[in-house]
Amino acid sequence: MEIKILKGDITTTAAEAVVIFHFDQDDKLLQPAAAVNNVTGSIINQVIEAGDFRGEHMENVLLFTQGSAAIKRILLMGLGKRENFTAQTLREAMAQALKTLRDRRQPRAVLPIPLDDEFPLAMGETAEACVLGGMLGLYQFTELLTKERDKIKDFDSLTIISKRKTKPLTSGVDRAKTMAAGICLARDLVTLPSNQATPTFLAKRAKDVAARAGMRFKLIRESEAKKLGMGAFLAVAQGSEEPGLMAVMDYRPSGEESPPVVLVGKGITFDSGGISIKPAKDMDKMKHDMAGSAAVIGAMQTIAALKLPVRVVALIPFTENLPSGKAYKPGDVIRSLSGLNIEVINTDAEGRMILADALTYADRYKPQAIIDLATLTGACIVALGDNVAGLMGNNEELQARLQAAAEESGERVWPLPLWDSYFESMKSEVADLKNVDGRKAGAITAAIFLKQFVPEGVPWAHLDIAGCAWADKGSALVPKGATGMGVHLLTRLLQSWKPLSKDNK
Length: 505
Hints:
The chain has helices spanning about 30-40, 45-50, 85-105, 125-135, 165-190, 200-215, 220-230, 230-235, 290-305, 350-360, 380-385, 395-410, 440-450, 485-495; strands at about 1-5, 20, 60-65, 75-80, 110, 155-160, 215-220, 245-250, 260-265, 265-270, 310-320, 335, 340-345, 370-375, 390-395, 415, 435, 460-465, 470, 480. It is of the alpha/beta class. It has two domains: about 1-140, Leucine Aminopeptidase, subunit E, domain 1, CATH 3.40.220; about 180-495, Zn peptidases (Aminopeptidase, 3-Layer(aba) Sandwich). The strands form five sheets. Strands 7, 8, 9, 10, 11, 14, 15, 16 and 18 form a nine-stranded mixed sheet that branches. The protein has a three-stranded parallel sheet with strand order 1-6-5, with helices on one face. A three-stranded mixed sheet has the order 2-4-3, with helices on one face. Helix 3 (about 85-105) packs across helix 4 and helix 9 packs parallel to helix 14. The longest helix has 25 residues, at about 165-190. The protein is elongated and about 80 Å long. The chain starts with a strand and ends in a 10-residue tail after the last helix.
């Protein structure tokens, strides 16, 4: 979608369609709505007064001006109650607006900004929310389609028009395009089938992102991982013919050498469950067990493009989890990079195995904080549903910041307890700990397992994104399929990053 910014007057602009917003049962029209209403014979007021449109969130109606103005069509879009408005409200409404026009074969639209002198968002923030929402809502994965490509409906251009200075609009649009590119990259990577999105392929994509952004990049191959002692990672990888690889992306603004924030992403490119094999039903969806890694790659691209002034290192272990004559087995005892011995109870608890070594490896950077993202447990979906990530960790301030970033990004998280008493059930009779306990508190015991491998004294947060990495039903911002969960959240967190309080626990 091409995005243009013009200085001008919406009432005299020739356009196939204009997007106009309205708050639910608000007596006062927003400024662009009032201006368009005046030149079209009060068409907007007539529809509202007739009760055909109230302005409920996502409610919309397409009006034809019948030659009364240079604008041919008005898409009237509801924002819901003014008192409930957030940036996410506007993102969703704009996404729905552009999808509605696209589906009606109207591939071009004009959007007037500012919406009102009393509008809750400034001009730049309004433009950012509208463009980001529109781009995310219009997302389609079509690269593997070979037939009937002529039936794919695209949206060509959005023109933002304003009577005022356009500089704030330009910066807002640029931020939105950068964010959308990172999120859509993550969606693309998760959507690709696992025969294409192999560990080698994804490691190369991470390398390409790093190269374009001028980041340092390192690839840890199995031979080096063995020398380092990454036994937990290698145990999972040994069942596959594909080599296990860990990508290291190091973003250093202005050559910054300070301790970084470390992001860790689970990169299981296909999860059969290994010897503890999964049921056949829905196993095809296990191609998205690398959604944590995709989110981290997308976030790193976004962070670098926005030139955020904080050093960030990404550690991304990639492998498949497959059954074979070489695969690790229930009952095996595996020595991890940390030196802890892990008794394998279930080979389908492989994500925590590869993350364990990545978390331990992070200590080499003496990080300010570590945040890991993983499609880790079905138990988290049982606890919180499909649209919320479980949040656990060892530092209240870091968790609070993630919750605030979640509110800003619209990517929901919810805290779960991580009391040390949960570790009692993870103790092994033959090793230091087991890789899985029973069914109770499965999301929490998975996180308590990870906690054992976090470098001592380092603030750490774990995001279990099992439910929200893939959408079985589409919504305004997220078409059915990969969501790109985590890119926006991490970027919002790091946009306002400052060192954590040393005394916070």
